[in-house]
Specification:
nine-stranded mixed sheet, two-stranded antiparallel sheet, 34% helix, 23% strand, ChyE-like, transferase activity, Class_I_gatase-like
Length: 250
């Protein structure tokens, strides 16, 4: 009998109006129905010492939190969220279990692995061209994407020094580390692999005063996003799910 465990989506957005749409973006892009994608809001409850092997795979969403914020400037909720995600990362790495950290999550994973996160390579909210590395072109997850493709970004911090012993998979002109893999199954992306153009524009409206772009340029951002083709990154998310399921079944 095939083991079809559920997947888990972990959101870390305090803005209620952004939470449901992010979950739906992940669910649609991954190809999972709602019955197979559990959802935990980390800003509301702790996952404690969750063993990721309870699920076929885990997907970590984005957040307006920044890991580079000084510790004494972080809200207690953010400190708890980061502790939860760090424990999850350690367990996933120890068991090489499929977990995909996106946007905010890449900063958590980078720090757990001993790399560095800084503000030098932040990117304003926009579509950008992402280029696969040679390793990326042969990677089982990222390799389903074209060698060059457009993705949607918006982040104030990024990996400034790759951790040792990870595989660098993709970069952009403004951000040298867009995707990497640790072990064979733990992935991290700086761009948002789940969002459609409409999803991103709706999210931009929620965060228009958060410093990801000049608030008065919202309509111009909408036009730039609508003129770009940003369907490719979602294929990465679907492939991650396919391979996680195959691993569980195997």
């Amino acid at each position: 009998m095939t083991d079809t465990r559920d997947f888990l989506f972990l959101s870390a957005r305090p803005e209620v109006e952004a939470v449901g749409p992010e979950y739906e973006s992940v669910r649609r892009a991954s190809g999972l129905d709602a019955g197979r994608l559990d959802h935990v809001r980390l800003d509301v409850e702790s996952i404690g010492d969750l063993d990721p092997r309870r699920y076929s795979g885990v997907i970590v969403g984005g957040s307006p939190y920044n890991v580079t914020t000084p510790e004494d400037g972080k809200h207690p909720t953010q400190r708890r969220v980061e502790a939860d995600l760090a424990r999850l990362a350690e367990r996933a790495l120890a068991t090489d279990h499929p977990v995909l950290f996106t946007c905010y999550g890449i900063g958590i994973l980078t720090r757990v692995l001993g790399g560095e996160v800084g503000t030098l390579y932040g990117e304003e909210a926009a579509p950008v061209e992402v280029t696969l590395t040679e390793a990326g072109r042969s990677d089982p997850v990222v390799g389903v994407l074209p060698a060059r493709f457009d993705a949607l970004v918006g982040h104030k911090e990024a990996t400034s020094r790759l951790p040792d012993d990870v595989v660098h998979l993709a970069r952009s002109a403004g951000c040298p580390v867009q995707v990497y893999r640790a072990g064979s199954s733990v992935y991290a992306t700086q761009f948002h692999p789940e969002v459609s153009a409409a999803d991103f524009i709706a999210r931009a409206r929620v965060y228009r005063h958060h410093g990801y772009f000049p608030a008065h340029e919202l309509e111009a951002l909408r036009d730039r996003v609508n003129s770009a083709s940003v369907t490719e990154p979602q294929r990465m998310l679907r492939r991650f799910v396919e391979l996680a399921d195959a691993r569980t079944a195997g």
